[in-house]
Write a structure and sequence with these properties.
alpha/beta; 6-stranded parallel sheet; 21% strand
Length: 229
């Protein structure tokens, strides 16, 4: 159903190269196939789909897409909320953060060159289709710092200690910085952060910390709820 939804919204034709699907799936979307005139469509059996898919239990369809140049896109002028992922290594975290960003309407995520490849199969799988809507641009941390300072965008880093996200207030655009799963935000970026923010837990909580993707989703929920992004 994800692919059908993408076809209905016109998101596949300009990027989709090939579509491999079972007979039942092709029958289900026969009305939408006319929109994919430039796409090579192949009917395959469940067995054949299993051979070309990286999943142990593939769905009924697999598509191949053009890969955009992740380094050619300029930094934007700064919407109300931006995201920069510094040296995020876990594919599941990356994919889940992309999916959360898509849910909250964030169109672009910036990543350091030391972060996991967005086209890692596990990243793609965990985005659950959000990779089709959220742009991921790889940039140097120094470029993020320079850009934000020039555009008046606040660098807000997520730390274990800092101001509570529930009390933090600003009318300026924000660049939310999330660091490596084990090492956190680098010293280079830490020295440039304008505000350290944190997610306060219960006084009787026992967990040492939150999973990175979980923390990102909580922060996005709070910031987007109040800032209307």
């Amino acid at each position: 159903m994800e692919v059908i939804d993408r076809i209905d919204k016109g998101l596949l034709p300009d990027r989709c190269v090939e579509l491999y699907a079972t007979p039942d799936f092709l029958k289900m979307i026969h009305m939408e196939l006319a929109m994919l005139k430039a796409v090579s469509i192949w009917e395959v059996s469940d067995y054949e789909l299993g051979k070309i898919s990286t999943l142990k239990t593939p769905n009924q369809v697999l598509i191949t897409l053009h890969m955009p140049d992740l380094n050619s896109q300029a930094l934007n002028e700064g919407p109300r909320l931006n995201m920069f992922l510094e040296n995020v290594q876990d594919p599941g975290n990356m994919g889940t953060i992309i999916r959360a960003a898509d849910w909250y309407g964030i169109e672009t995520i910036y990543c350091s060159n030391g972060s996991v490849d967005v086209y890692n199969p596990k990243v793609v799988q965990s985005t659950m289709g959000s990779i089709l809507r959220v742009k991921v641009v790889y940039v140097n941390p120094e470029d993020i710092i320079k850009h934000c300072n020039a555009k008046g965008i606040l660098l807000c880093g997520a730390f274990l200690e800092g101001e509570s996200i529930y009390s933090f207030q600003t009318n300026k655009p924000i660049m939310l910085i999330l660091g490596n799963e084990s090492k956190g935000i680098s010293s280079v970026m830490m020295n440039e952060v304008h505000h350290k923010i944190t997610i306060p837990g219960s006084s009787n909580g026992c967990a040492e910390s939150l999973n990175l993707a979980m923390a990102a989703t909580i922060i996005l929920s709070e910031f987007c709820g109040r800032r209307g992004c």
